[in-house]
Amino acid sequence: MSRESKKTCSAEEEDNKSFIECAEFVLPWLSPRELASISLTCKTLNSLSKSITIRRVSDASRNLEKNPIPFINTIDSEPYSYFIYTFSQIFSSPCLSQSWGTNPKRNVSSSVSLMKFGSNVTSLMSDSTSGCVCKNCSEDTNGDIRCPCSKLKPLSLSNMGSDSSELGLMTECGPSCDCGVECKNRLTQRGVSVQVRIGKDARKGWSLYSAQFVPRGEFVCEYAGELLTTQEARKRQKKYDDIASTSQFGSALLVVREHLPSGNACLRVNIDATRVGNAARFINHSCDGGNLSTVLVRGSGALFPRLCFFASRDILDGEELAFSYGEPMLKQNGLKCFCGSSCCLGALPSEET
Ligand SMILES: C[S@@+](CC[C@H](N)C(=O)[O-])C[C@H]1O[C@@H](n2cnc3c(N)ncnc32)[C@H](O)[C@@H]1O
Predict the structure, then answer these.
(1) Which ligand 1 atom sits closest to the C-alpha of 337?
(2) To test the ligand 1 pocket, which listed residue (71, 282, 348) has its Cβ within 8 A of the most ligand atoms?
(3) Atom 26 (ligand 1) nearest CA
(4) Are 268 and 296 in contact (CB under 8 A)?
């Protein structure tokens, strides 16, 4: 090979390298449809798109959780479910975006969105004076947390129209406390705490399974998503109902009501995990209450409580995770329930939002 053609060749290689680098940066921001269409334009982009799909399938959490959360679909050809990942609740915003499937060897990660979501979470504060000044709240010999933040008086609660006794209340250190994320009184603030995987069921769609033994009482995960005003929640629910009436579509909008002991509703929290959420958006309903209990967790200085799931009994490795979406108030166009429990009522609970 002449010196001239060697030179041209290495210039081409350089061009190709920067093309791939540029594509590696841009492609993880694309939706599955955009990724599929761009993969048709050239061989290089096709193989890059395939590797991005493989990375997406291997971890729904985009490296944001301690353990990867893989998708396993043996039912049809949909490789993964596309949504924006957040490990806690965030204020809704029309223009959220997040990359997914970047090459872990390159220094292009989801950290931009993580920072964005992180600041969004801390801005959900009521005041900065109610927290503790402990440096790291510790447990006493009985296993109780020694911290003023874990001693707030519980309110009585109800969620999604269900019986008030079903929803517990916990208080933790929050954004206005001095202690850090490793504090013992921040059990529910470190993301999904057990190993899980997302599988597909022929009738229920995507479902969340435990990938380890989980003892009764253990914290599993938060129900993360967009916090909506009631007006926005009603608007979205209507849109979701319309879509569900003509196609197989599962929304993930939960309404939680917090009551005063008198029984009058005092706070309503609308969490929509349909577009932005975490692994909990894949937890299906079970008429027998499933294996998860719901607990509202209030953090000192936080404006809104967070909805968290704890194991209501021992959960075996491979078991599907489920909870009760609430009382069945059957609508004419209500979705069929396939929970398979002996007390199944045949329809999913659906409340007027
Ligand atoms: C929070 S999402 C759960 C994840 C959902 N399966 C998916 O594919 O994304 C709620 C939706 O899942 C479906 N679903 C949940 N529990 C179900 C059940 N027991 N039987 C049938 N469908 C169920 C319904 O479509 C419901 O609107």
Answers:
(1) 20
(2) 348
(3) 250
(4) no
pTM: 0.87
Q: Is 323 in the pocket of ligand 1 (CB under 6 A)?
A: no
ipTM: 0.99
- Domain holding 276, by residue range, is 61-92+119-156+165-352
Integer Cα distance of 7 and 302 in angstroms: 62
Ligand 1 centre and the CA of 205: distance in Å?
Answer: 6
For residue range 233-286, list pLDDT tens digits in order: 999 999 998 888 787 778 899 988 877 666 665 678 999 999 999 999 999 999
Q: Are 46 and 75 contained in the same domain? A: no
On whether both 135 and 28 belong to a single domain, the answer is: no
Question: What would the pLDDT profile of 231-242 be if each residue is shown by its tens digit?
Answer: 999 999 999 988
Any idea what the Cα angle at residue 148 is, between residues 144 and 149, rounded to 5°? Answer: 90
Pocket lining: 205 vs ligand 1, CB cutoff 6 Å: yes
At residue 167, what is the residue type?
Answer: L
Verify that 207 and 253 share a domain, yes or no: yes
Does 201 share its domain with 333? Answer: yes
Q: What are 63-112's pLDDT values in tens digits?
A: 999 999 999 999 999 999 999 999 899 998 877 889 999 887 654 444 43
On whether both 281 and 212 belong to a single domain, the answer is: yes
Residue nearest to atom 15 of ligand 1 (CA): 284
> What is the phi/psi pair of residue 285, to 5°?
-85, 145
Split at pLDDT 50, 70, 90, the class of 27 is: very high
Ligand 1 contact, 326 CB (< 6 A): no
CA-proximal residue: ligand 1, atom 1 (nearest): 252
State how far the Cα of 237 lies from the Cα of 148, in Å rounded to an integer: 39
Pocket test for ligand 1, best of 284, 294, 344 (most atoms within 8 A of CB): 284
Distance of alpha carbon 82 from alpha carbon 198, whole angstroms: 12
